[in-house]
């Protein structure tokens, strides 16, 4: 089969220049989180004899984070595997890594992709998939590993906006906020349409900035997000809603919820997770949105108990318990404990020591049994970053724990725990509500 060179000097095995260009476009669209990502399944159906394009279509569906989307990914990856012998060594290794990813062998997939970028530092597609695997393993927990990975790729990719957006986020996760901002700005100087760099800026504001003086900058980026891939539009909208909630500006938080967060692609996992994460915080702030909760929980039930990563199952368990769907909530918790009994790396390192009990705690919080939820989290609260998600996403569970301590009459413990986790952070109106 013919081979074609990319702009960065890598080689793609493809049936035509058009097919090779589609692979290269997928990398650019994934790095820039552009709407054109949605084109790749159709392109893969058109160019059936280009293994990397089949793999790109599989990746597109794997990002859906469910057994249902994994089932859509499988035929594309199987087609790529059937042609792998005709590929380059780099492509074969990449296809094997995506097979591990599809099989939920996140640790092994990440090791393969890290090795791949060590050998091929221009391979930003492999680096971007690795970034998502850090999320599966806990981006905050994996922050320094993520940052080290990005650091060794700088020389090869210093002119890439997508690279600097990843680099800035890794730096933020490590708490180096002063460095993360100029890295995000470097990304935007190369390409202003970089919603992942905007994502870094939103993290920086929520983690350490004065929200009342920085909110306008983030709010002004919404028109770009609406032109981006739906996943980042949704997630960055979630960050904006959280910033409003931090100020206890419920009206504007709800405005974002209704216009840009919930109801556009409501059967997708990412939209459900971001919506649950906002509504749960509203619960903590004493703002109840029961009607939306019912809609979200009804749609989320199909994904409960799939045990992709504890982070997801914790959200689903809370939502189901929150609306009184006790059968589904109990099933989700039981599945988590079953997952913890297995013998693979994910079970041994995540589900058994923390994941199952974490999901059970989330269900307790959803039932309104906040003291019980806090008791479950107490021995593992420092390990919460291992369940998946970012620092900002995992704040939800720390906040729920603090509220549980408060509800247990342990006000001093709630205050000291807040100081331990957030002592250097500008204290918001939401923080005051959480502790009152």
Automatic annotation (TrEMBL):
InterPro entries linked to this entry: TPR-like_helical_dom_sf, TTC38
SUPFAM superfamilies: TPR-like
Keywords from the named record: Repeat, TPR repeat
The organism's place on the tree of life at top rank: Bacteria
Family: Belongs to the TTC38 family.
Protein name per its UniProtKB record: Tetratricopeptide repeat protein 38
